[in-house]
Write a structure and sequence with these properties.
Layout (H helix, E strand, L loop, with lengths): L2 H5 L22 E5 L2 E4 L4 E4 L2 H4 L8 H11 L14 H12 L15 E6 L2 H14 L7 E5 L8 H6 L3 H4 L9 E4 L4 H7 L4 E6 L2 E2 L5 E2 L2 H13 L3 E5 L23 E4 L10 E6 H4 L15 H16 L2 H16 L5 E7 L2 E6 L4 H10 L2 E2 L1 E4 L2 E4 L7 H16 L1
Parallel strand pairs: 3-15, 5-6, 5-7, 7-10, 10-11
Antiparallel strand pairs: 1-2, 2-3, 4-12, 8-9, 11-12, 13-14, 14-17, 16-17
Helix pairs in contact: 3-11, 4-11, 12-14
The structure holds pyridoxal-5'-phosphate (PLP).
Length: 406
Amino acid sequence: MSSHAENMGVNGELQNCPIMPTYAAPNIMFIRGEGTELWDSEGKRYLDFVGGLAVQSLGHANPEIAEVIGEQAGKLTQVSNYWATEHAHHVAVEIDKAVTGNINDPSSSPYNPIGQVFFCNSGAEANELAFKIARKATSKSKYTVITANDSFHGRTLAALAACGQPHKHEPFAPMPQGFKNIERGDIEALNDAIDETTAAIHLEPILGEGGVWPHTSDYLLKAQELSRDRGLLFMVDEVQSGLCRTGEWFAFQHHGLNPDVVCIAKALGNGFPIGAVWVKRELAASFEAGDHGSTYGGNPLGTAVARKVLEIMKRDNCNKMAQLIEEQIRTSMAELPQVVSIRGNGAMLAIELDKAISKEVAAKASMNGLLINPITPTALRLTPPLTTSEHQIQEGIQILKGILNA
Ligand SMILES: Cc1ncc(COP(=O)(O)O)c(C=O)c1O
């Protein structure tokens, strides 16, 4: 074990570690990955059904992406956004096609996009811009963004204020103004919450960090209708659920929605930090030079990676892969007496157990070489890479079944 690993708390020695203790002390240090497999500092192999929390959709150390990173790093990594670079335009076109259901449109030019894209570096940053769009693209008196209880939108101050998780607000009070959290799934509560200051409704189609809770089609369609009737923007946070994770390019597409703003991150870089906001052109037109920016946003290295990610997702039909993973997990786990229900879509699932033992199950799974996330006291979240093979899914399920049956 390296001394760094010891300092990280891997041996329970956290006191000398110069990293802020914002995460629970880790007890494993990972050195290497390949697809769905990881190896720790002791050489032990794990199956990774956490997938970097829905980031590693194309698997760890994907060789095609590694090649692009190497090539682009040796060519150009960053220049100021005063100037254009090679890949950003292409990625923006592909994102527009994915959002608008035109991903298989072969024409790259002339192509008439419905929206425009801003590149950032993370999910929280994507949401920050969504909130600014809600303020700038509506009338001056409107600024409030309505979000759902239990929702998660990131850790920067405004994104935190948007999260429907008051216990996360308390240590950092007072929160920035202009956010209202309402009971999720309750259309009356949404209707009642709208007032003359409301600018937008902002929803995760499937709440990820909140416990993998899908909103129903009925609720989402009514929320969209309400936003149209009351002159609000309808925005979706697809940071976790986007880019083939749920078996569609975006989770909102399961419900035939037509959002004004879509926040994207996680899988876009398959581990390389990049995020994006897609916004309808007429709303984007409310912004002018100087209204927003990011030093690293849209850099040629990040966009080269995103370009390859989107190309692979399209070529390999990752939506289908996510659907197959869902089928296998549902078929193999549903019959277990300890499993109350399985919720979510594609490779974004939660297994609800009959007892509050998810932490113990996840700890035992890790000891047995399987990484899963205890998302609530009673539920396990599975977000494996979409490239996980049938054999690997079965291997992971056997580990889980062994633990639940013991
Ligand atoms: C739906 C959603 N939005 C935003 C975020 C924040 O993303 P980041 O950690 O990249 O800032 C997350 C992270 O888990 C998320 O799941």
